[in-house]
């Protein structure tokens, strides 16, 4: 006999508890006698009855002990072997990997690949012995365990709730996760239900090393032709305010020429259908000049049906309405203005220092060679503040400005080669100062910090302690990146207009933010509370438009923004050549046959316990 | 158990026929019965001597004794005499307890004694009591009243609490003839309430036979587990988990109580019979006669 859940035997502690209860609380049976006179006299002469006494050996006590023991034993899930069990079987652990990538929504098999995979997986679960353990992993952009345990009913329920996404499947990560869940000493099998439309690098799982389980691929669907919008982007028309040019790429993933129609609509109004002709395996790039004020565009392919409608449509939110306003307070704004205007989704307003007032409304205010005592709302970039600045006082300028210290992992230096920056940037003069308590040094020299970041109260502040014209930094490739990083750091709430499936979206809330709600294209929503923290929404595997609603303290009108997720991609839309991942052919450590485990007998024990419970009830009430 | 048919079946009656009631008798004024008595009187069959007193019949003076001792003695002899038997049956609620119930056994015992008395032409009075005197059967005489006696006993029902002292004192005031026999059938519960009543009977010249009924489980209880004892008669309740020492003490107290009753009776010339309800009633009757020295 095997106890599958030994921890449940801890419930045997109920036995002494029951005995103790019987010792403390006596249930007396009434008995008529001819006279209590002599009994009372005998007790009076001997002693009073003690409260705690030897446990009475009653039928009721025995029945209750038996019931508690049966329950504890049953929850321990004992299993017996041999004839009593009606046969033996091997303990096993089955790990199901369910491909939830966009290609699994292809309808080349009815109703679609994902539904077929789910049915097959459920069929496999139904065929497992009731005592087998199962794990279900949703293989999406981020592999996730949907269920792991021995309740196959719950496993089926988790399977029923699984939905496909619009992104790619991270196969190596899913296999790594599955391999980590392999149970030692028993038979393990990993079964992958997938369309097998993996990119070549993801299909080679040999670098993962040996998989301690039998790996089996269950291909869903076959090679199928498809056409898709694989790219959709927009750029501002140079020299024209609030005008954008739309760029779309349409690909033909089939062996035949196709002639779809690309229909463009802006804010729900169809603008211009274009008849396309795509040769086998070819792609075509399309450009549209969007009308002024357009905020939301959609491109849709129509014509002959294909098996993956999901990638026949792509949406884009234009950055116009969600742009960040940057106030540049500078007497010589040219260098900074160019760098700031190059940041997508920003509008730069130049303010002469004499015209500056503290009530300026901007996401970021850049102070060039000045820094007022009263800071405006939003982030502040201070460049070469005066020596007498209240927030960043200095001891004058210094020429000992060679970069000696760089915090390479700072967010301000993201995508910047720190070593190259240190070697290539020269600064003639910088302020001699010590980093104040509210700031951390990012780049430093012997003269003191060159780049600082911190917060003054609730205002995020970044400071450059040198005059840009006194350095060659503006001419470096890293300068626009640095400025973009600084602006994104100071005003991080700007949403991207389009997000790759499964990629997280982060928003920094302000003190005025009450809640932020992310509404998925399907209509379901997730709400976060504000208060100044960073909010990250990671569930972006659904294709379509996501609505972000921010409620602010003191305002009855919520702030609404949006971003889109498009499914089309060169990998997921190409359904022509499924390829099974390659794993190590002879995995070491695979247990061909684990120890035998018999039939579980807890239902029998439960039945017996129920019967005894009925007897106990009868005995207690007779 | 209390129905007449079950109480006195045919087998029971046949067993009664085989018994004979022997009792002491005193001389009756007129009727002469079939029972021998220890009371001495003048008769042909010599029993004893006593000094002559004024008024004695000269014919009973033993002149031989006078010749030898120069004192006048008269001859006394045993004589058959008519006897009135009073059956006093405890019908309290404590008598209802036992297996068989003491009340059931008491009625059978009373039936046996009454049957024999009537069969031998003795006069019989049967009375049930609890907290007061209940129904009475008799006085009556003759075999023809046997069925009436059995019906009377069969219809008796146990009553309330008993007060033996009060009942016996009340009964002692009843008209009786000297030497009448009173047979008290009782469990003497609740303890301690019978001695005054017996003394009152003795002072009035009653011959008394006390049949003390006990269920074997009263002497040797077999209680187990956690109990709430309910007094059958007083409804008193007592929680009890019978530990061995408590049980032993109980047995000691009951034995002392029985011993006290027996001693009390012996010292006062009361015939005391301790009877367990599991015994055959013939044992009771034979025990009774042996107790009284009528059979060996």
List the helices and strands and how they pair.
The complex is a heterodimer of chains A (622) and B (296).
Chain A (H helix, E strand, L loop, with lengths): L1 E2 L10 H11 L4 E5 L3 H10 L12 H17 L2 E3 L8 E2 L1 E8 L13 H15 L5 E7 L4 E6 L2 H10 L9 H10 L6 E8 L5 H4 L10 E6 L6 E11 L7 E10 L7 E6 L2 E7 L7 E7 L6 E7 L10 E5 L6 E6 L4 H8 L4 E6 L12 E5 L10 E5 L13 E2 L4 E4 L11 H7 L5 E2 L7 E7 L2 E9 L2 E6 L13 H13 L7 E2 L5 E4 L4 E7 L5 E5 L4 E4 L6 E9 L6 E7 L30 E2 L1 E2 L1 H20 L1
Parallel strand pairs in A: 5-6, 5-8, 8-9, 17-18, 17-19, 19-20, 20-26, 27-33
Antiparallel strand pairs in A: 1-3, 3-35, 4-34, 6-7, 10-11, 11-14, 12-13, 12-15, 15-16, 21-23, 22-24, 24-25, 25-26, 28-31, 29-30, 29-32, 32-33
Chain B lengths: L3 H4 L2 H8 L23 E11 L11 H7 L3 E5 L6 E7 L11 H18 L3 E7 L3 E9 L4 H9 L9 H9 L8 E6 L8 H9 L3 E8 L1 H4 L7 E5 L5 E4 L3 H24 L3 E6 L4 H11 L5
Parallel strand pairs in B: 3-4, 3-6, 6-7, 7-10
Antiparallel strand pairs in B: 1-2, 4-5, 8-9
Helix pairs in contact in B: 4-5, 4-10, 6-7
What would you note in describing this structure?
The complex is a heterodimer of chains A (622) and B (296). Chain A is α+β, with helices and mostly antiparallel strands and 622 residues long. In chain A, the strands form 9 sheets. Chain A has an 8-stranded mixed sheet. Chain A has a 5-stranded mixed sheet with strand order 7-6-5-8-9, with helices on both faces. In chain A, strands 27-33-32-29-30 form a 5-stranded mixed sheet, with no helix packed on it. In chain A, helix 3 runs antiparallel to helix 11. In chain A, helix 8 links the parallel strand 17 and strand 18. Chain A is extended and about 115 Å long. Helices cover 20% and strands 31% of the residues of chain A. About 2% of the residues of chain A have low confidence. Chain A contains 11 helices and 35 strands. Chain B has 296 residues and is α/β, with parallel strands linked by helices. Chain B has 10 helices and 10 strands. In chain B, strand 4 and strand 5 form a beta hairpin. In chain B, helix 4 packs antiparallel against helix 5, helix 4 packs across helix 10 and helix 6 packs parallel to helix 7. Chain B is globular. Chain B starts with a helix and ends in a 5-residue tail after the last helix. In chain B, 38% of the residues are buried. The N terminus of chain B is likely disordered. At the A-B interface, strand 2 and helix 2 of A face strand 8, strand 9 and helix 9 of B. Strand 2 of chain A pairs parallel with strand 8 of chain B, so a sheet runs across the interface.
């Amino acid at each position: 006999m095997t106890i599958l859940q030994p921890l449940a035997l801890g419930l045997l502690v109920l036995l002494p508890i029951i005995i103790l209860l019987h010792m403390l609380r006596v249930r007396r049976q009434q008995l008529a006698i001819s006279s209590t006179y002599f009994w009372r006299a005998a007790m009076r002469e001997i002693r009073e009855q003690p409260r705690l006494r030897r446990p009475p050996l009653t039928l009721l006590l025995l029945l209750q002990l038996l019931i508690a023991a049966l329950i504890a034993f049953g929850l321990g899930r004992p299993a017996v072997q041999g004839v009593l069990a009606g046969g033996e079987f091997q303990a096993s652990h089955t790990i199901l990997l369910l491909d939830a990538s966009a290609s699994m929504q292809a309808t080349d098999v009815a109703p679609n690949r994902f539904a077929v995979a789910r049915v097959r997986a459920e069929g496999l679960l139904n065929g497992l012995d009731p005592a087998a353990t199962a794990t279900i992993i949703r293989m999406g952009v981020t592999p996730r365990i949907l269920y792991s345990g021995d309740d196959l009913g719950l496993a089926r329920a988790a399977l029923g709730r699984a939905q496909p996404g619009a992104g790619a499947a991270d196969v190596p990560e899913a296999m790594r996760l599955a391999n980590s869940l392999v149970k030692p000493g028993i038979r393990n099998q990993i079964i992958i239900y997938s369309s097998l439309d993996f990119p070549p690098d993801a299909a080679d799982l040999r670098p993962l090393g040996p998989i301690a389980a039998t790996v089996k691929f269950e291909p869903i669907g076959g090679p199928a032709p498809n056409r898709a919008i694989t790219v959709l982007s927009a750029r501002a028309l140079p020299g024209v305010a609030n005008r954008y040019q739309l760029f779309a790429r349409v690909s033909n993933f089939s062996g035949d020429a196709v002639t779809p129609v690309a229909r463009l609509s802006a804010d729900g109004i169809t603008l211009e259908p274009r008849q396309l002709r795509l040769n086998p395996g070819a792609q075509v790039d399309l450009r549209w000049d969007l009308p002024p004020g357009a905020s939301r565009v959609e491109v849709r392919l129509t014509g002959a049906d294909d098996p993956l409608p999901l990638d026949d449509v792509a949406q884009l939110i234009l950055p116009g309405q969600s742009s960040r306003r940057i106030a540049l307070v500078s007497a010589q704004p040219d260098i900074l203005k160019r760098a700031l205007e190059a940041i997508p989704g920003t509008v730069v307003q130049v303010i002469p220092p004499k015209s500056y007032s503290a009530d300026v409304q901007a996401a970021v205010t850049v102070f060039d060679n000045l820094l007022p005592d009263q800071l405006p709302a939003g982030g502040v970039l201070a460049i070469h503040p005066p020596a007498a600045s209240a927030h960043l006082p200095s001891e004058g300028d210094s020429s000992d400005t060679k970069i000696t210290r760089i915090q390479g992992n700072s967010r301000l230096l993201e995508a910047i080669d720190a070593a190259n920056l240190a070697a290539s940037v020269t600064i003639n003069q910088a302020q001699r100062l010590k980093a104040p308590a509210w700031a951390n040094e990012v780049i430093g020299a012997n003269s003191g910090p060159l780049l600082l970041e911190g917060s003054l109260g609730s205002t995020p502040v970044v400071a450059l302690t040198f005059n840009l014209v006194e350095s060659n930094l503006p001419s470096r490739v890293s300068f626009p990146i640095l400025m973009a990083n600084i602006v994104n750091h100071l005003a991080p709430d700007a949403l991207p207009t389009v997000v790759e499936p499964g990629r997280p979206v982060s928003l920094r809330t302000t003190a005025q933010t009450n809640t932020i709600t992310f509404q998925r294209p399907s209509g379901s929503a997730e709400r976060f509370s504000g208060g100044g923290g960073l909010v990250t929404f990671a569930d972006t595997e659904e294709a379509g438009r996501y609505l972000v609603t921010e409620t602010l303290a003191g305002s009855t009108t919520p702030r609404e923004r949006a971003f889109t997720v498009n499914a089309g991609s060169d990998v997921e839309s190409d359904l022509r050549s499924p390829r099974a991942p390659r794993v190590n052919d002879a995995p070491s450590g695979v247990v061909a046959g684990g120890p035998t485990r018999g039939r579980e007998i807890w239902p029998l024990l439960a039945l017996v316990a129920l019967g005894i419970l009925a007897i106990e009830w009868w005995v207690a009430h007779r | 158990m209390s129905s007449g048919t079950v109480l006195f079946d045919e087998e029971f009656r046949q067993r009664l026929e085989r018994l004979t009631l022997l009792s002491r008798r005193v001389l009756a004024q007129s009727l002469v019965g079939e029972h021998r008595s220890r009371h001495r009187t003048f008769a042909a069959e010599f029993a004893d001597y006593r000094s002559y007193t004024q008024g004695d019949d000269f014919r009973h003076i033993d002149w031989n004794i006078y010749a030898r001792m120069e004192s006048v003695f008269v001859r006394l002899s045993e004589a058959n005499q008519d006897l009135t038997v009073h059956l006093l049956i405890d019908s309290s609620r404590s008598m209802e307890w036992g297996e068989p119930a003491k009340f059931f056994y008491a009625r059978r015992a009373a039936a046996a004694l009454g049957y024999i008395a009537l069969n031998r032409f003795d006069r019989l009075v049967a009375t049930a009591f609890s907290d007061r005197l209940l129904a009475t059967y008799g006085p009556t005489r003759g075999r023809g009243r046997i069925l009436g006696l059995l019906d009377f006993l069969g219809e008796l029902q146990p009553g309330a609490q008993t007060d033996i002292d009060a009942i016996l004192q009340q009964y002692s005031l009843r008209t009786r003839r000297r030497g009448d026999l009173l047979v008290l059938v009782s469990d003497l519960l609740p303890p301690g309430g019978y001695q005054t009543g017996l003394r009152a009977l003795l002072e009035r010249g009653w011959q008394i036979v006390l049949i003390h009924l006990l269920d074997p489980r009263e002497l040797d209880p077999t209680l187990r587990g956690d109990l709430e004892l309910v007094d059958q008669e007083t409804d008193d309740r007592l929680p009890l988990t019978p530990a061995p020492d408590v049980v032993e003490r109980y047995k000691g107290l009951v034995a002392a109580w029985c011993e006290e009753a027996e001693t009390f009776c012996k010292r006062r010339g009361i015939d005391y019979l301790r009877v367990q309800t599991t015994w055959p009633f013939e044992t009771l009757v034979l025990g009774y006669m042996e107790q009284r020295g009528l059979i060996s």
